[in-house]
């Protein structure tokens, strides 16, 4: 892993591939929330890029005073660790792998996928209330999840894609169709959104009728 570059920039001004930092949060609200304190990558000295990103994931989302809050990841100094902080962090850190066309593949883990005659659903039918969702995308990208197409609604579990681009989540289901959305954000200023609805309604009887082989 290459060493961190010593970089400083003013929040809200650092270009992302020729564009300013992007967020679904209104520009005026972001301007009020963030200050212009320079951010120094030396806060992450001694960490690999993946270690630093996994630390961010462990603190996301959180607010000052909460048990998960870690001030070193509050990079825009607004009292919370959110998606804007993740975007800033991605730009501070060395790349995990080469830049590839941005896409995302996602599916339920085989052990959590129901079998047999089941309702048709593009995201899959889960037998577990907390199924594992696995996927692949740009190595080193941050992956946010939730229900909706804007940053404010993507407040579910987050993950970071490893050196080969693999990531996983363990969301919690409610009865029926769960509208699960996944947004991938990378260090090059790109992002992509994928809808992944998961059906769950308690498959105890179904599984009893279809026992799994050892």
């Amino acid at each position: 892993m290459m060493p961190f570059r010593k970089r400083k920039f003013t929040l809200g001004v650092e270009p992302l591939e020729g564009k300013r930092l992007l967020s679904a949060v209104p520009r005026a609200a972001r301007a009020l929330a963030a200050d212009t304190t320079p951010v120094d990558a030396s806060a992450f000295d001694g960490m690999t890029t993946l270690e630093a990103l996994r630390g961010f994931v462990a603190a996301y989302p959180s607010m000052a005073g909460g048990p998960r809050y870690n001030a070193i990841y509050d990079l825009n100094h607004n009292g919370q660790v959110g998606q804007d902080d993740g975007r800033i962090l991605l730009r501070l850190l060395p790349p995990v792998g080469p830049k590839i066309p941005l896409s995302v593949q996602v599916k339920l883990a085989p052990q959590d996928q129901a079998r047999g005659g089941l309702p048709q659903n593009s995201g899959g039918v889960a037998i577990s209330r907390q199924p594992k969702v696995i996927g692949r995308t740009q190595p080193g990208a941050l992956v946010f999840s939730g229900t909706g197409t804007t940053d404010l609604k993507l407040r579910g579990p987050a993950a970071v894609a490893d050196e080969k681009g693999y990531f996983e989540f363990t969301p919690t289901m409610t009865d029926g169709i769960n509208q699960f959305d996944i947004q991938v954000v990378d260090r090059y200023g790109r992002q992509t959104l994928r809808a992944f609805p998961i059906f769950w309604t308690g498959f105890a009887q179904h599984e009893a009728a279809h026992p799994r082989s050892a």
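The chain has two domains: 8-92, 105-209. Helices lie at 27-33, 49-59, 83-92, 204-209.
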